[in-house]
Every structure is written in structure tokens, then in C-alpha cells.
Amino acid sequence: MISIQGQAVVAGIAEGETLVSHEPLSFWGGYDHSTGEIIDRRHPLSGQMAAGKVLAIPFSRGSSTGTAVLLEAIKSGHAPAAILTTGVDTFFALASIVAEEMYGRSIPIVALTAEDFGKLKTGERVRVEAEGLIRRLNGASDWHG
Amino acid sequence: MAHESLQSTMQAEDTTMLKLSERDAAMLRGEQGAATQMAMRILARMAEVYGAEELLDITGAHIDSTVYIGEGGLEFAERLASLGAQVAVPTTLNVSGLDEHGWREWAVPPEWARNAQRQMAAYASMGTTPTWTCAPYQTEMKPKFGEQIAWGESNAIAFANSVIGARTQRYPDLFDVCCAITGRVPAVGLHLTENRAGEVLFRLVGVPEAIQRDDAFYPVLGHWLGRMAEERIPVIDGLRVTPNEDQLKALCAGAAASGRVALFHIVGVTPEAPTLEVAFQGRAPQAVFDVTLEVLRKARRELTTAEGETLDLVVLGSPHFSLAEFRQLAPLLEGKHRHARVKFLVTSSRAMAHLAEKAGYLTSLKNFGGQLTVDTCILTSPMLPPEIKMLMTNSAKFAYYSPGLLNTQVTFGSLNDCVESAVRGQVLVREWE
Predict the structure, then answer these.
(1) pLDDT truncated to tens, each residue of chain A (145 aa)?
(2) B321 and B361 in one domain?
(3) What is the total count of domains within chain A?
(4) Is A63 tagged catalytic?
(5) B33 and B154 part of one domain
(6) How many domains does chain B divide into?
(7) Chain A residues close to B49, C-beta within 8 Å
(8) With contact defined as beta carbons under 8 Å apart, do B201 and B290 qualify?
(9) Over the stretch A58-68, which tens digit does the pLDDT of each residue have?
């Protein structure tokens, strides 16, 4: 079976290519909400475009302004399609919940176990289901191997 | 740890539910107005995300959502304000997007300024105290030990929890205001005694007292703490000196920028750590890190991205400069003048700047050719002209964020190095020996 069961912190459906890092990221100072580029020059994903991707980072780091940055990105259409974390990340959840409150538009936030998170690789096409199921759409999978 | 907490949350989903009090439920039904209803709707949903079983009362709040990021945050603030939002508890406001009365001296685009001012007006209309500072713990509204509060602003959260012993989660923008309006927070995390125990130990090993007294030691230690602690609560042991409030402030800002430290303990210094055992609430550390001089040198080097000696701007004051810091700076500037090529900027709060002026500390800054900005920060206001590319600072937070946010390069140095570099017109840094 080509899937990982996560916890839907903010439920929703999304599809996209994965962008994975094991380094936490602060969206404030780390994410350009008008382009979707990761701009923390000390981060391994620096220079990558995360807009429309399924972004997997362990958790959000740093400034409490990170939620406001993600809200702007959701509003302007430059947010990741979904965000996967290890454990529940309240910052990402809040941005998505407020975006729904304000604009009727949220992105799925899914919490995975550290073990399942470790199975993710950049560049895979995945679908996030409403109940937090992550399905891999192409290629053979070693997720359960 | 993350794994364990996730498991418990997942199990909790099936068995526990958020129980709202009658007052909470009334707010949710809109009986206290539409703004309170909207705030409670977000709060109740977030309380489930936090895995809370109930909400608890707070006695103060600090709103970080004042920082103007873009239209979304502004629309959120104006929606709440237009619905008649009023805070339920004494509430301070964090930095805004501009120096309200001084922004025209800088490169802030007028249209941006109008939006930032609208956002300031929205939050000021909610019955808040317009402190416009990232160091609310250095105002008259500083909370007390054991107080339950809802604070935003990462450095202030770390200070309130660690140095004061007040209790707040690491509340994000857009949520802090919901807590302030309802006067409620999810009863989870750092609000509860059992979750405030130290988890990892940082032992200072062979760090000379002279370095422990050095102001630059604290932001560097904070930077390292944030890098290594990850999501765990650090305990520092082996400090042989008693740090002052501004040194602890610098530690907080460094730790909350490079990591997500919301609470740390220093044995013999901070209020919940009279002894190592108490700091860990009798539990064993999950990990032990030795902080040696070599580690500190490495951490210090990480804060510098610039190469060479070119310098455009020396900037001090993240978190906002205190009266004590103005007092410390004034004699260093006396009789000197900055190099014509280098700007010299201090950021502070309007209240602190007023006190510093009355105390006479601003005269030497002015004679030095230095500038002062209040209400905001170079990281939250597009105030720096584009030709400024090479920064120098004594703040780990400025050093951490300026490369990404401002597309500049930065050198970290002590306060003395910063002043001397501004005079010479090029970077001068003395490493620890």
C-alpha cells in the first residue's frame, strides 16, 4: 500500500510534489509570501519554491509572526498546497484556520510520526486526503518497506 | 518527544473533548458581540488543535499581530475592529510596521505606511495600551510570577516564562488577539506546572568568568541554545555570575530566533530553578550538552555572514533598547563621531526613548551622528534604503534574521566593537581569547 496515515490537524484535500527538509523553518524571514520562495539563507531549502508543493518540515521555528506570513501566502495563492510536520504544529494550524475564517480557504495541515516523516523524499507526487491520509501517486514505494 | 506527544494527541482525539464553560459557550453563541464570537470561534478550534480539555482565564496579553505583513493581517485586524472588538484584559502592543511619527525620515513607501498605520489604528481601537514594543517586560505592565498570560513575540514569550516565571504558550500572531478579546487560553503546555520542567541540560564547562560577564556571551549562548534544544526546555547550569536583565533579554531573543525556545531555566538565576533538581522537577535530563569556549566561538561565528570589512549600518536594539542600555551606550559614544560612510541606528520604544531623553542619554547619540527609531524594527519596517547591504549588530536576533528578511550581510560583534567599527568606517571584531 502506498500510503501514510497522519493526523489531520486542519483537514483538507491537496495534491502536489513533495518538498522535504528535516530542518525546522521560520516562515517569518524564511518564506516570501508574495512568491512562495524559501528565503532563509541558512536553511537547506533556501531558494526553493514551495508554492503549490506539499511542504514537509518537522516544525515551525522562530518568530510568532510566522502565522501572519502563511496567512498572506494563502490569501495571495503562494502557499504550499499542504504542510506536513512531525507532531502538531499550532502555528501552521492557526494560519490555515484563520484563512478559512477570513477567506473560506484553508490548506491541509497534517501531523506525522517522526518515523513516517522520515520516509518522505523530495520530488514525489502525493495526494493528501481529508482524513490525513498521504497517498503516493507515482512510482514504487518503500514507505512500508 | 514529538512522536510521543503526537501519539497521545491522536489517542486523545477519540476520548477527550473540549469542554467549554457556560461563559465560553455564551461568547461562542455571540452573546458578547460579533468580535468576541469570532475570536472565540478561532480560540475553540485552536484549543482542539492544542488538545485542550478546557480553557483558563488570563490576566494579561501582549499582541504581536500588530506587525504589518500584508493585506491579510490588516483585513483580519480591521474585521475584528469593525465588529467592535475590545480586549478583556490589560494588553500591550508589539512593534508595528513603522515609526508612527518618524517614518518619513526613512525609505518606507507611503502606501505601505498607510496600511501599517491602519493596522496600528485597528489594534489601538481595541482598548489596548499602545506600547509598540517587543520588550513589554520592560514596561510598567510587566507581568508577575505565576501570572497566566497570552503573549506573542518570541523573545517576549521566552522572557515572560523564563525570567519572570509568568505562564504563556508560544502564541502566534492572529491568536494572541483572540485570547486578549476573550480573556481565555487553552489550558495546555506552559500554562501548567508539570509542563515547565527542564528537559535538556546545558553545562557551562571551562567558560571563564570574564566571558560570562561579557554582554556578547548572552546572545551567543541564546543562539546555541535555540539551535540545540529543538522543542525541549533547556536548563543552563554552571553560570558563575548574575546576569542583568538586558543580558537575559539578549539570551531570550537569541534562543527564540534560532530555535523555538519559549522557556528555559538557569540554575540559581531564574525563578523556577533554585537548584538543578527543582529545574528538572526531579526528572533526569533527556540529553546533556557541554558548552565550552570552543562551542561558543563556533556559535558566535554562525551569527556572522559577512566577509571583509565593508560596513553600511550599525544597528542596536533588538529587542528594543532599554534605559539601562542607553545609559551603557552614552559614555561609549562621548566625544566621538561615526564615520561619514556608516549609519548608526538604535531602535527602542517611545516610552524608553522618552525616559532616555529626559535622562540626557540621547545627547551623545545625537552628537555621535546616530539615529533613533521607535515603535518598530528594521526587520518589520521597510525603512532601510536599498544601498544598505552590510550590517553590524550586537543582537543575535538582528544577526539571525537580517540576511533573509533584508537581503543584507551581517557581522555580529560586542557593543564596543559596534561603536568602534562605526567610528572607523569598517568592521572591527575582537574574538574571545
Answers:
(1) 479 999 999 999 999 999 999 999 989 889 999 999 999 988 999 999 999 999 999 988 767 788 999 999 999 999 999 999 998 999 999 999 999 999 999 999 999 999 999 999 999 999 999 999 999 997 655 565 3
(2) yes
(3) 1
(4) yes
(5) yes
(6) 3
(7) 9-10, 88, 90, 93-94, 97
(8) no
(9) 988 767 788 99
Relative orientation angle of helices B245-258 and B217-229, to the nearest 10 degrees:
30
> Is the domain of B215 the same as that of B126?
no
**Which of A60, A68, A76 lies closest to B67 in CB terms?**
A68
Q: Which residues, including other chains, have CB under 8 Å from residue B241's CB and lie 6 or more apart?
A: B209, B212, B213
CA-to-CA distance for A56 and A99, rounded, in angstroms?
A: 20
**pLDDT tens for each residue of A38-63:** 999 889 999 999 999 999 999 887 67
Residue span of the structural domain in which B132 resides: 18-194
- CB-CB under 8 Å, A7 with B6: yes
The domain in which residue A95 lies consists of 3-136
Predicted model pTM: 0.92
Find, in chain B, the residue whose alpha carbon is nearest to that of A47: B404
Catalytic entry in A63, A76, A96, A106? A63
Position A141 in a domain = no
Q: Are residues B401 and B276 in the same domain?
A: no
Supply the CATH number for residue A58's domain: 3.50.30.10
Instruction: Kindly state the helix (H) or strand (E) to which residue A71 belongs, with its residue range.
Output: helix A66-76
ipTM: 0.91
Partner-chain contact B403 A28, CB within 8 Å: no
Q: Are B24 and B157 in the same domain?
A: yes
Which amino acid is located at B111 in the chain? E
What is the CATH classification number for the domain harbouring B371?
Answer: 3.30.499.10
| Beta carbons of A29 and B405 less than 8 Å apart | yes
Positive/negative CA dihedral, A94, A97, A102, A108: positive
| Residue that finishes a domain, picked among B194, B229, B245 | B194
Using CA atoms, how far apart are residues B167 and B161, in angstroms rounded to an integer? 5
* Residue B157 neighbours by CB under 8 Å, 6+ apart: A64, B151, B168, B169, B170, B171, B256, B262
